[in-house]
Amino acid sequence: MTIGATELLKRLGGGQATGLSAGSATVADKARSGFAGMLSRLSAAAPASGMAVTVEPFAGVTLNAEQLERLSRAADAAESAGATRALVVVDDQALLMDVTTRRITGKADPEAQVLTDLDAVVRVPAAGSSGAAGVVGLPGKGAFGISPALLRTLAQGSNNEEE
Fold first, then answer.
1. Are both 117 and 75 inside the same structural domain?
2. DSSP 52
3. CB within 8 A of 82, min separation 6: which ones?
4. pTM of the model
5. Which of 97, 15, 2, 98 has the alpha carbon at shortest distance from 46?
6. Do 89 and 111 lie in a common domain?
7. Residues 32 and 97 in one domain
């Protein structure tokens, strides 16, 4: 979820981010609370993007309106964490989501030992839960742009040389 600079300034300047109405505080009061405080309150209460999640026709997935709403909030959380492709776990279903386009592209193969082209795992809260989606980023290219598998192999090789 991205908030443009103009929208951010509107929220900060209009008192919306501080929880104050325009007439209830002086400029000095707002200044005393500090920009960092206003920014943290704005971030904590960041509105949902309202972007709907859709299911690709070939995905073989059926979701109800309530699940799609929860997935929309989860996609917002994944996007704010920097994810573009995620494994999303909702109601005991493991689904593949293109976070950028908000599309469910399929089910994760439960027999697969390795899933590729993912940069996050998102656990969607159960229906009726007030909790936020949990996002776990995956290492991607690893340290210095080197794949984690290559780093493990190099580490094993250096451990064998020390013996």
1. yes
2. P
3. 119, 137
4. 0.56
5. 2
6. yes
7. no
Spatial neighbors of 152 by CB under 8 A, at least 6 apart, are none
Per-residue pLDDT of the chain (163 residues; tens, 9 = 90+): 567 777 767 676 654 444 444 455 555 565 556 666 666 665 555 557 788 999 999 999 999 999 999 999 999 988 888 889 999 999 989 999 999 999 999 999 888 888 888 888 888 888 877 666 666 555 554 444 555 566 566 666 655 555 4
Structure-token pair, residue 70: 């929860």
Q: Does residue 66 share a domain with residue 35?
A: no
Residues 39 and 66 both lie in one domain: no
- Phi, psi of 133, deg, nearest 5: -65, 140
Identify the domain containing residue 33 by its residue range. Answer: 5-44
Looking at the fold, whether 58 and 129 belong to one and the same domain comes out as: yes
**C-alpha dihedral over 38, 39, 43, 46, to 10 degrees?**
70
The amino acid present at 20, given as its one-letter code, is L
Is the CB of residue 157 less than 8 Å from the CB of residue 151? Answer: no
In a domain, 115, yes or no: yes
Specify the 3-state DSSP secondary structure of 144: helix
Calculate helix-pair angle for 35-44, 5-13, nearest 10 degrees.
Answer: 110
Q: Tell me if 37 is assigned to some domain.
A: yes
When divided into structural domains, the chain yields a total of: 2
